[in-house]
Amino acid sequence: MSAQRTCWNCGQSKQESLFCTKCNALQPPPTDYYALLGLEPKLNLSIDDLQRRFYELSRQLHPDRFMRKPEAERQYSLDASSILNDAYRALKDPVKRAQYVLNQEGFDIGEQRSKDVPPELLEEVFDLNMALEEMRSGDDSARPQLEQADKNFTTMLSDVDQQLETQFTQYDQSKSRDVLTQIRGTLNRRKYIQNLLNEVHNQLATSHQPPATSHAN
Amino acid sequence: MQIDFGSTERVVGIDLGTTNSLVAYMDLTGPKIIPGADGDKLVPSVVSINPSGEIVVGNAARELLLTQPERTVYSVKRLMGRGRDDIQEELKLFPFRVASGSESVLQLQLGDRTYTPPEISAFVLRQLKQNAEAYFGEPVVKAVITVPAYFNDAQRQATKDAGRIAGLEVLRLVNEPTAASLAYGLDKRENGIVAVYDLGGGTFDISILKLHDGIFEVLATNGDTHLGGDDIDNLLLRIALEDVQSEWGLDLSTDNEGVQRLRRAVIQAKERLSFVPFTDIELEYRGKKYQREIQRELFDKLITPIVDRTLGPCRDCIKDAGVSVEQIDEVVMVGGSTRIPLVRSAVEILFRAVPHTELNPDEVVALGAAVQAAILSGDVQDKLLLDVTPLSLGIEIMGGVVSKLIHRNSTIPASATETFTTGVDGQRNVMIHVVQGERELVKDCRSLARFDLKDIDPMPAGMARVEVRFLIDANGILNVTARDLRTAKEQSVDVKPSYGLTDEQVEKMIQESVEKAEQDFTERQVREARVEADTILAAVEKARRHDAYFELSEEERAAIDRAVNELLLVYHADDHHLIAHKIEQLNQATMKLAENMMNTAVRGALKGTKI
C-alpha cells in the first residue's frame, strides 16, 4: 500500500489499509491497480487469485454498500470500485497487463509503433497482402494460400505468447528495464500479427465459400 | 439469505415498463408487488389528461384511450431520451402527437398542454408512489427504478429525471434482466452461468451472468431498445385495418377511437393465442361488426421476423460473454411477450435448454428491483450486482473518428482518463464531444453530450494539460470531471446534453410538480369532502319521508333545513375544511332524527316479533 496517511474521518494516523483501523471509514483509494488489489507488481499472475481478490474487494467497495454513508465516503467508494473494475479488466488479460506495467514504468506504447512491419515478417506479409488483394477482387483461387497463412500466423501468435511468458518471468525476477523494452517489442510484434490474423479471418468469412464437394468415403 | 430489517428507510423497487408498471417492496418473506387501489398489480403505463386538467393514470387511463384518444398517451417509454430525428419510425406506428418546437427534448401534445416524455413517465411513477404510500400509510420517497439493459446514457438520464419530477429520490437505475436474475436467484443455484431473455412491450434485452456465491456478475449484455410486443400488435393491427377497409369500405386508421378499439381487439387475440391454437379478432364499432379467425400457425409465420430479430443479439451476447452455449446452465424468461409459444421455442432451440418460466414474466423485474432496493437499504447483505455498460463510450477525434475510451460490457463503475491540450496560442476553451456506440465514425454513433472545458489559463498552443476523467457510475450514467495538471486545480466543465433535459429544466419541472402535487392533494380532499356531503344529504332527504322526521319539533326541523342549506352553500367552495365543518353541523342537527329513526326501527322490529 502507498504512503501512510491520516484518516479523513477520525484523524487516526498511520492508515495503511483501505479502511481506517479505528473508525472503519473507507479511505481515498490508491490509483495503482496492483496496490488496490494488494498484489506485488508482477507480470505473471494467478488468475484464480486475481478473481478471488476482485470478488472480495467488490463486496467491500461497491457503491451499493455505501448508500447510507457520508458523501465523502460514497465518492471514495465510487472511485475505488471504478479503479477496481478497471484493474481487474486490465490485469486478467496478459497483454493489457503488460501494457499497464509498461505505461506505469514510463514507456510510450503509442498506436503508431504497431504499424511498422517487423523486419523478419516482411516477405511473408508481402505475399499475404497479394493474396488478400486477389481475394478482395473476387478471385477465390487465393483461398488455400490464405488458409495456410491463417495457420502460420496462428502458430506465430502462440509462439509470441510463449515468448511473452518467458519475458514476464524474467522481468518478475530482475525488474530490469531492458526486459521491459524487449516486452514492448514483443507486444508490438504480437499486435501486428493479431491485426493480420483479423484481416485474414474477415476476408475468409466475407468471401464466398467454395461449393461443397461430395463426400466420397 | 441474510436479511436484516433493522433499517428504517423504506426503499421501493419500480419497474417502469412500456406497457405496464409495477411497484414492489421486500419484507421478511421476500419481495412482493404492491397492488393499486383497484386491486390490480399492473398499472398500465397510460396517461390521460381530462379537459379539466385532471391527470388519470393506469387502468382508468386505458379506458380513456378509447373515448379521448387525443388526450391519452401510451408506450411513452419508446420516446425517453430520444430526439425528433430518432423517432420517425415510431411516429408511423404510434399515435404520438409531437408538438412543434421540439428540439433536443420532445414535447407531446395532450389536450391543450404539452409534456416531455419524462414528465409523462413521472405521472406513472407518481401513481406508483401513491399506491405504495397508501399501502404503507406513510410517505415513500426512495426508489430503485429498472431500465432496459440496452438503454443508452440519454435514456437512463431521462428515466432518472422522471423519478425526480415524480418526487422520488432515485437511488439506483438497475438493468431489467439483471433485476430479474435477482428475483430468480433467490431460490436458485449459488454458482453457474445464467442467460436472461427479456422481451417486453417495447424493448428487448439479453444478458448473460455468472453467479458466484451471491455475486451476480454480468458478463455481457445486448439488445434492441425498440423491439417488443408493441411491434407484434402493430403487425396485427395493420392486417385488421386492411380487412376493415375492404369489408366496410372504411379507412379506420384516421379514426382515433376506432383504431384504439381495433388495437385492443388484436392485443386480446394475441394474448389468447398463447394458450389456444386459434381465436377471433372481434370488433363491434358504430353498428358494424368485424370478425376474423386467426390461427397460431399463421400468427407464428407473421411474427417470425420479429422473433428472429432477437436471435442475433443473443448470439453476439454469448460471444461477448466468452462462453459457449453448453456452458449456460439456465435460461430465464422475462417480459409479457415471452408467453408466446414461438418465442419460447426459439429460445429453447438457440440455448438448447428449456427456459425457466416459473415466475410471472410481468412481475419478475419489479420483484428483482425490490431485492436491489433491499440491498441498497442494507437489509440484504449477502448479494451484490456487478453490471456492465451496454455501449462503448468514446470521444470525437480528428476527422470525425471515434476514439473509444470505455468498451462495451465493461463492469461498472468504469472509468477512463485522457489528457487534452490546446491547439492555438491563448486558447481558453476545449470542447470534448462524447459519443456512445460501436461504430468507428462519429456520425454512426449516438451523440451523448458536449463538454466544454472552460477558463483554461492562456498559454502557448499545446502547453495546457487538462486531465479529464470519464466515469460511468453504477447507474450506467456518465460523469465527467477535469483537472488542470499544471495547477492540480479542478477544471470547470460545462455539459450540453445532446438529447434530454438540462438540470435547470428538471428543477423547474420538480417545482411545478410539487405545486401540482399540493394542488392535486387539495383537490382530492375537496372531492372527498363533497362525496361525504353527498352521502349525508342523500340520507337526510330519505329521512324526511320517514315517520321519525314528523316526530321532531318545529325548531328541530328548521335546524336541519338550516344546516342543509349551509352545507349546500359551501358545497362548491374549494375549501374542504369548510365543507367538513358544515357536514359536522348537519350531523349535530340530525342527531335527534337519527335517534328517533333508530328507536322506530327497534319498535318496528319488536312489533314484528311474534311471541
Walkthrough of the structure:
The complex is a heterodimer of chains A (217) and B (611). Chain A folds into 2 domains: 1-92, Helix Hairpins, CATH 1.10.287; 109-206. Helices cover 59% and strands 0% of the residues of chain A. Chain A has helices at residues 33-37, 47-61, 71-91, 94-104, 122-136, 143-174, 177-206. Chain B has 611 residues and is α+β, with helices and mostly antiparallel strands. Chain B folds into 4 domains: 11-228 and 303-386, Nucleotidyltransferase, domain 5, CATH 3.30.420; 229-302, ATPase, substrate binding domain, subdomain 4 (Actin, Chain A, domain 4); 393-499, Sandwich (Substrate Binding Domain Of DNAk, Chain A, domain 1), CATH 2.60.34.10; 505-607, Substrate Binding Domain Of Dnak, Chain:A, Domain 2. Helices cover 39% and strands 26% of the residues of chain B. In chain B, the strands form 7 sheets. In chain B, strands 1, 2, 3, 4, 10 and 11 form a 6-stranded mixed sheet that branches. The N and C termini of chain B lie far apart (67 Å). Chain A binds chain B through residues 55, 58-59, 62-64, 67-68, 78, 81-83, 85-86, 88-89, and chain B through 7, 9, 171-172, 212-213, 215, 375-378, 384-386, 410-416, 471-474.
Count up the domains of chain A.
Answer: 2
Helical content of chain B, roughly?
25-40%
Overall 3D shape of chain B: globular
Regions with little confidence, pLDDT below 50 for 5+ residues of chain B: none
- Strand-pairing-aware structural class of chain B: alpha+beta
Biggest sheet of chain B: strands, sense, closure?
Answer: 6 strands, mixed
Give the distance, in angstroms, between the N- and C-terminal Cα atoms of chain B: 67 Å
Q: What is the residue-averaged pLDDT of chain B?
A: 88
- Cα separation of the termini of chain A: 66 Å
What oligomeric state is this?
A: heterodimer
Secondary structure tally, helices of chain B: 15
Largest interface (CB < 8 Å): A-B, 16 and 25 residues
